[in-house]
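Hypothesis: this fold can be encoded by more than one sequence.
Test: take the structure tokens below, design a sequence, compare later.
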């Protein structure tokens, strides 16, 4: 909390020539997003190459993944509304919306787990060659990145009740919102990818 405030103070007090530069937190976020994009681009490229094998087995996506899709889209709406409420200093709405986004994020991960269980019950395991093996890895890695976002949301939710939130810059909320929108879009891309390429 203190370090965030120090960074923000240094940023605001920087020379006039530096004020047009990107905030350090935002810069770090975009670097992280770029790295994540490269990782998933490599995984999906490997999927395309492997799918040309003669013993390749396709899978049908469980319904749980479709439910989780609706959940994460809804969470993107709530976090955007939370950001708007923060900027308008409607702190009651902000706390409620951040909490709701947090709940939706947890629900997304839960339904991802249900989807993995459904695949496992269909005897789709890590053995053999097929779309199922890649699905576990790619969807699992995405879920890990969502969990990282959930942890951040939890910290922000706690700060909203304990800290002097009204004194904070909107930058941390903006960073989390952009990251959350990113994992939302990434999930939709992965889902469509498996439907088109792996189906």
């Amino acid at each position: 909390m203190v370090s965030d405030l120090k960074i923000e103070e240094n940023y605001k007090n920087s020379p006039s020539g530096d004020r047009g530069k990107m905030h350090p937190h935002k810069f770090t976020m975009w670097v992280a997003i770029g790295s994540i994009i490269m990782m998933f681009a490599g995984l999906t490229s490997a999927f395309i190459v492997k799918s040309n094998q003669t013993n390749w087995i396709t899978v049908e996506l469980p319904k749980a993944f479709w439910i989780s899709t609706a959940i994460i889209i809804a969470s993107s709406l709530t976090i955007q509304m939370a950001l708007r409420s923060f900027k308008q200093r409607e702190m009651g709405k902000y706390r409620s919306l951040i909490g709701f986004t947090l709940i939706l994020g947890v629900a997304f991960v839960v339904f991802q787990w249900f989807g993995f269980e459904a695949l496992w019950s269909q005897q789709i395991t890590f053995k053999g060659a097929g779309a199922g093996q890649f699905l576990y890895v790619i969807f699992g890695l995405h879920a890990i990145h969502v969990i990282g976002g959930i942890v951040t949301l939890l910290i922000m939710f706690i700060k909203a009740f304990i800290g002097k939130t009204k004194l904070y810059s909107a930058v941390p909320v903006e960073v989390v919102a952009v990251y959350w929108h990113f994992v939302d879009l990434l999930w939709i891309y992965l889902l469509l990818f498996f439907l088109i390429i792996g189906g």
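The longest helix spans residues 131-162. The two ends are 47 Å apart (CA to CA).
Hypothesis status: open.
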